[in-house]
Amino acid sequence: MGLVPKAIKEENKQIFGASLNLLLGFMVTLLLSNSIGNTSVHSWFRVPFIIYCLAIYVLLNFKAPGNPKKHVWQGMIIWFVDLSSPRKFLSIVGYAFKEAFS
What we know:
By secondary structure, this protein is mostly helical. The chain contains four helices and two strands; from the N terminus they run ααααββ.
């Protein structure tokens, strides 16, 4: 195992600083929202539905304000897992309390 240069560690930048993953995700979101819009959304609302789906995708891919190394969607998953995890669990010696993540 050798050292990996910092340039290789970073995401491959493409157009206007957007990464390849962001562009591919944008295209997949566009195609999926278009196909769902054609089958499930009234014809008057197809274009606003596609724009809404793309806006949600872009908003969820911003960097999280609390931790700039993570995206907003990653923070939402961590929050949901922490919200749905039990606060008390049965231990051998009785009840133990789970510490809240900060």
